[in-house]
Specification:
- This protein is about 45% helix and about 0% strand.
Length: about 60
């Protein structure tokens, strides 16, 4: 069984970033993307916000 590992990125000082720091940065980026998406959806005034479509699983 072969395993592939992504190379660790450096922090600009030549030191590799730890997994926790990488995850924190990814979560921050995801949070920013979700906030932007939320703002876009609220700006469009989508009808039935928060309601499930008929036949939608949940």
């Amino acid at each position: 069984m072969s395993e592939e590992f992504a190379p660790q990125q450096s922090d600009g000082n030549g030191r590799p970033k730890g997994l926790l720091q990488q995850m924190e940065e990814l979560m921050a980026a995801l949070n920013a993307d979700l906030s932007a998406l939320d703002a876009d959806l609220q700006a469009t005034g989508t009808p039935g916000q928060g309601r499930r479509q008929e036949g939608e699983a949940g």
